[in-house]
Amino acid sequence: MKQILPILLLIFLATSCKSKKSYSSRKSTSPSVKVNTTAKPTAEAETIVKYAKTFDGTRYKYGGTTKKGMDCSGLIYTSYKKHNVSLPRTTSGLQGTGDWIDVKEVNVGDLVFFATKKNSRKVNHVGIVTNVRTGNVEFIHASSSRGVMISSLAEKYWYFSFVQARRVL
To answer: Contact 63/98 with Cβ under 8 angstroms?
Structure first.
C-alpha cells in the first residue's frame, strides 16, 4: 500500500493543469474565436495581468504560489491577491466566483476555465486573459509540462478544452 500512494500522487500531478502546446505566432488551421475587441480593459485588470506576466517561465509546482514554483490556480490567486482582490485558492473554488460571461465578451483580466482530461467536461485548469484581438484570446496559465506561459484559444487543444469564462473584477 505504501508503494501505491507515491504512484497515485505522481499520476495526479501529471494530469492536473496540463498543457500540450505553447502559443505560436504562426498561422494555424485552428478555429478562431469571435470576440468583441472594442471594449477597453480596466486599469486594474491591466495591472493584474502585468504582474502575472512576471511569473512567465516559472516552473510548475502543485500548490505553488511563488517564483520557485506555481500551479494554475496559484497564479490567479497570487496575481489578484497582490492587488487586494481576494479569490479562492483552488480551480474549483474559482469556477464559481464572479459572473459567467460569454467567450465573445471576454476582456483582459477575465478568467478562462478548461477541462483538459480526456472524455471529461469537469474543469481542472484556469488562466487569466492577457490579450483580446479579432479571432484570438490569449491567456497566461501554469501548465504542468511547461510552467507559466501564454497560450491562445485559437490553438485546437485549448479551443476544444474551453469550458467557460468568468469576470471577477
So the answer is: no
